[in-house]
Amino acid sequence: MYKESFLMAWASLVANKLRSILTMLGIIIGVAAVIALVSIGNGVKKDIQDSISSLGSNLLMVMPGAPRTPGVRPTAGSHKSLKVADYEAIAKLDGVKAASPYTAGSYVTIYQSKNWTTSVSGVNYNFQDVNNWTMAEGRFISEKNIKNRERVAVVGQTVVKNLFAGEDPVGKEIRVKNIPFRVIGVLNSKGNGAMGNDQDDAIFIPYTTAMERVEGVDYLRMVYVVSEDESGIDRLQSDIENLLRVRHSIKDPELDDFNIQNMKSIMETMEQTTGTLTLFLGAVAAISLVVGGIGIMNIMLVSVTERTREIGIRKALGATYNVIVTQFLIEAVVISLMGGLIGIALGIGASYLIGSVSGMSTLVSIPTVIMSFAFSMGIGLLFGIYPARKAAKLNPIDALHYE
Amino acid sequence: MNHSVIDIQGITRTYVNGKLSVPVLHGIDLQVHKGDFVSIMGPSGSGKSTFMNILGCLDRPTTGSYKLNGNEVATLTDDELAYVRNKEIGFVFQSFNLLTKLTALENVALPMIYAGVDKKTRNERAAALLSSVGLGERMDHLPAELSGGQRQRVAIARALANDPAIIMADEPTGNLDSKSTIDVMNIFRSLYDQGRTIILVTHEPEIATYASRNVVLRDGYIVEDKANLNMTPVQEVEHV
Lengths: 403, 240
Hints:
The complex is a heterodimer of chains A (403) and B (240). Chain A has 13 helices and 10 strands. With 403 residues, chain A is an alpha+beta fold. Chain B is α/β, with parallel strands linked by helices and 240 residues long. Chain B is 32% helix and 28% strand. In chain B, the strands form 2 sheets. Chain B has a 6-stranded mixed β-sheet with strand order 6-7-8-3-9-10, with helices on both faces. At the A-B interface, helix 1, helix 10, helix 11 and helix 13 of A face helix 2 and helix 3 of B.
């Protein structure tokens, strides 16, 4: 019986090809839009995840807080409370894989007749691993460079481009704040950071040199800490908090003179934000799917009216309520299912096209595909029921005399 | 009297339209025996169509009893009536009422689909029925590719599909030219000769002469019910 109903439904869809295709179009566009838009959302999410994990997702950044002295309180991070001794104590904690102090300033750097203002950061010899840098040329700062406060520098790609047009920077002398430095290495490009900043616009020098020879300070801007594993990162964060409180004689956590940023929690926040974005895009597309469903209902109602006489004949020949309902419901579901399948193909195609044409990354997710397929079938059922019931309830006498 | 295919006792039918109720049938008794060929005649407004709808189980009487093949059908539900129509009644309509998108064979097979007959049996029986009405060559034609007389013959074949207890023909020749009319009436006559029970509703006295019994309806009553001893025999038609 169901096979016959299916064949009858199929025959009537084929008999009205143009109408069936136009009706499907609503579902096709809806499903394709859901898949393509969600794939864009997922792509953005993956981009952000990648750029955060390029910093290292098991990274903690310890920064001094704002001074709590009376009077005008400057911005967070400007406090002078974070010392090298604090860094050394943190580095000895359990669960620390690597740690590096970090000082930062922005200075004019000069090579021959060219100058370029860039960030000059003092770091330890292991900073390369802490912050996932790889060398393009030469070598990174060595332990001996740190100990001897040597004037050596490792430069990023943006600096190379602006100071050394075409020249090999390794072995050349540049001047930072009028202090001569020898370039010992060039970093590979890391591209833009999570906030859109150019990570390659940087020069790294030994932190000892930076503190004593360049800036003349005895405090650090930041301490980068890499935990041994991602799961231990929260425990490590509280260990550092406790350590610093003891070292700085702070009893009330409210009065902390430091502040720790946890890359894992930043990543979680980012994921939440992009998740919301994806959900929003998906919801907008889902609306068009519902509109497609209303299109199905509209056409099915027209079809029921148009086929009143046919329904009358079928009922006179013995078709029961269920037989008629099944026939029309199958028609609606076949329309929406076919629309769903074509929509999935188009949506996946569109997402690859968007990815390759615009350079945006897109990521088709299988659960979205399955869900939108199921959703389109549900819509066929939901919006098919009313017309199908209307058809099945027709009085055969009236239906037979309908012109 | 035990062989009454149709046993109708005092049926009435009143249409209720808002506060207005219009009685159309005022109490009709009718017995039809197996093998009867009954014509029902009557002027417009006589209640002919209403009576026909009730006889064909498309409608239920307001009061009264209707036993078809011994079973009470006056109180059945819609789906039960659909089942009775499918099994016990073969319809032949004035306007043929074939499904335009189905071939002659598919049209004849349709009632058997609803009866749950398997495809092979269905197609064999439909082909045999079409051959018996002289359309063996045109089984794959759509109704639009057939003449009026041929369409009505397809409809008769369809009416016989589930071997029903009665054949209800409602003005079967109303849309046909005189040659096709004779063709179609010849088929009814031969069905009568095979012992089938036929109810023929018509307003043409000439057509009524093919029947073995003439019933006349007026103003919701049966005013005349007599045997026709002078049945029109099968006539020769010259096919061009």
